[in-house]
Amino acid sequence: MTDTTVAIREAYLTDAAGMARVHVQSWRSTYPGLIPAPFLVGLSEPAAAQRWASIAETRAPGQGAFVAVDCAGLVSAPGTIVGIASYGARRVAVRDHGGEFHALYVLDDAKGMGIGRRLMAAMADRLLAADIRSAVVWCLRDNPSRWFYERLGGIRVAERPIRFAGTDLVEIAYGWRDLTPLARLSAGPEVR
Q: Which end of the chain is more exposed for a tag (fewer CB within 10 A), N or C?
């Protein structure tokens, strides 16, 4: 894979439908058995598109969204969004961490290509540019993909019970006290 195979770029309003598709498909493939099936079946791409449109419109220092676009048609039609990410102010206070990676989703067929790593690096770079030096990401404790954050240097820094879709769950936070090494993992030269 080269940097021209999958491009990482800022998300735009016109990306909302593609972002919603990745969001819904990722939840449906990642969370069976963790989140009740009726909730997963009821996920709506149009509703998700409205939320992602609002996120994609945000143009402020230290917050925003990125998309990963399959330029070469490796796992989908050329030009298809295969990964998404959003970042910004932390929503839950975690000591010594100023920012938060709000979301990171990559389609199953596109996993293992370095897309998640590049999206995380791009978000870390933008947080650093806004003088936000540290960040956390919250994920379900039983999420099979959570080890990805440890491989990128995230340290488990917090845990909390949550109630979601009528189910008691536990979230854990992985933190980076210094985002510089994460940003250096190469978001690729095409990030703009």
A: C
